[in-house]
Design goal:
The structure is a single chain. The protein is about 45% helix and about 15% strand. The protein has eleven helices and 14 strands. The radius of gyration is 19 Å and the shape is globular.
C-alpha cells in the first residue's frame, strides 16, 4: 500500500491586487513541499499538467526533473500527462530521461484530460478526443515495450524501425487515470495497466461498481491478479482543527472550484457542499488527522486500494499551510494508516 500526495501547482489568488501569485514563487515553494514529503517517507508525488493562468505547471517533466536531485526515495509521476494532445515519443523520451536522473523513480500517469486548453494549443480537434487517446496510448506502450519500433496511425507521422533514445534501464510504469466512464476503465483493464480513479465529488462509494468492473475485466483479459494496482486521487487537506480548516481553507477551495465551474456551468460552490464533502461519506479527505486516517482506511477497504494520493493544493493555499498539512499527513495520518494495515 502506497501513500502519496498530488498537486497541480495552483497559484494563490490575491483578491486585493486582483492577480495570481507569480509562478516563480509557486515553483520554488513546490520544491520545498515535495522535499518535505520525501523526508517524511511518503511513497509518491504526482503532478498535473495545465495550460491556464491559475496554474504554474504546464510541463510536468521539467518540474519533476528539478525534484529528482533534491529527493531520494519518493516516486515522481505525472498526474496526469494529457496524452491526447501530446507526442508519445516526446513523452517517452522525457520520462526515460527523468527515470535515469532520479534512479528509476519516474512514472507516467496518462489521461485524456478533463481540461481542454491543450487541444487547440497543440493543434488537435476535440472531436477526436477519444480516438487521440486510444491511438497515442497504443504508441506509448509500444515504445515502452519494444526497442525498435515500427508504427502507423491517423494522428501522427509513421515510425519505421526507429529506436527512441535515451533508453531507461527498466520498463517505465504507465498508469491510466480515469474519471467515471466505463469505457476508460475497460481500456485500462484490457491492457493490464494500473488504474487511478479521480474521486473529487459525490460519494466514493459511487465508484465501487467501476472498480469492481475493472477487476473483473482485468482478470477476464488474462492478467495476473498479483500485478493489479488500483489507486484513487482525491482532494485532501489535514488540519489540527476541522473548524479552522473550514474557516481558513474553504475560501481558497471554493474560489478555485468557481473559477473552473464558470466555464462548465456549475453553481457557486457552497460551504454546505464543503462540509458535506468532509463528512464520513463525502469525497473530500479533509479534516483532523484521525478523521482523514479513518476515511483513507475506509477507502482502502472499500476498493482494495494499492495506492492513495492526497491532492493538496486546490485553490493555491499559502505555502506555510501546505507545509503544515504535509507535515500532519506524513507524521499523523500515514503512520496510523500503515500501522492499521501492518505495513
Amino acid at each position: 500500500m502506497e501513500l502519496g500526495i498530488g498537486m497541480f501547482g495552483d497559484l494563490t489568488y490575491y483578491g486585493e491586487k486582483e492577480q495570481f501569485q507569480a509562478p516563480v514563487e509557486r515553483l520554488k515553494e513546490m520544491i520545498e513541499q515535495v522535499k518535505l514529503a520525501d523526508e517524511l517517507g511518503l511513497d509518491c508525488f504526482v503532478l498535473g499538467e495545465h495550460h491556464r493562468p491559475d496554474y504554474a505547471v504546464s510541463s510536468t517533466e521539467v518540474v519533476l526533473a528539478a525534484l529528482a536531485p533534491v529527493t531520494r526515495h519518493i516516486k515522481l509521476g505525472s498526474g496526469v500527462t494529457v496524452l491526447s494532445s501530446a507526442d508519445p515519443v516526446k513523452v517517452y523520451q522525457d520520462y526515460a530521461t527523468l527515470d535515469l536522473l532520479s534512479g528509476a523513480r519516474a512514472e507516467i500517469v496518462a489521461g485524456r484530460g478533463s481540461f481542454i486548453e491543450s487541444f487547440p494549443l497543440f493543434g488537435y480537434d476535440l472531436k477526436d478526443y477519444n480516438e487521440l487517446f486510444t491511438e497515442k496510448l497504443e504508441l506509448l506502450l509500444q515504445l515502452n515495450k519494444e526497442e525498435v519500433v515500427t508504427w502507423e496511425g491517423r494522428f501522427r507521422a509513421p515510425i519505421h524501425k526507429q529506436t527512441i533514445y535515451p533508453r531507461p534501464e527498466r520498463k517505465l510504469p504507465v498508469w491510466v487515470a480515469v474519471g467515471g466512464t466505463p469505457e476508460s476503465v475497460f481500456r485500462a483493464a484490457k491492457l493490464g495497466l494500473p488504474v487511478i480513479f479521480a474521486i473529487i465529488g459525490g460519494m466514493p462509494e459511487q465508484f465501487r461498481p467501476l472498480v469492481d468492473f475493472y477487476r473483473e475485466q482485468y482478470l477476464e483479459h488474462g492478467h495476473d491478479e498479483k500485478d493489479m494496482q488500483v489507486a484513487i486521487h482525491s482532494h485532501s487537506f489535514v488540519s489540527e482543527s476541522s473548524e479552522a480548516l473550514i474557516e481558513n481553507y474553504f475560501p481558497y477551495y471554493a474560489a478555485q472550484m468557481d473559477r473552473i465551474g464558470k466555464s462548465r456551468g456549475w453553481s457557486p460552490y457552497t460551504k454546505m457542499q464543503f462540509r458535506g464533502g468532509m463528512g464520513p461519506k463525502g469525497a473530500l479527505f479533509m479534516g483532523e488527522p484521525a478523521e482523514v486516517t479513518d476515511k483513507i482506511l475506509q477507502a482502502i477497504e472499500m476498493f482494495g486500494l494499492t495506492r492513495f494520493v492526497a491532492h493538496l493544493d486546490v485553490g493555491g493555499p499559502e505555502h506555510k499551510d501546505l507545509m503544515k498539512t504535509i507535515e500532519l499527513y506524513g507524521t499523523k495520518v500515514v503512520p496510523e494508516v500503515r500501522k492499521a494495515l501492518k505495513v
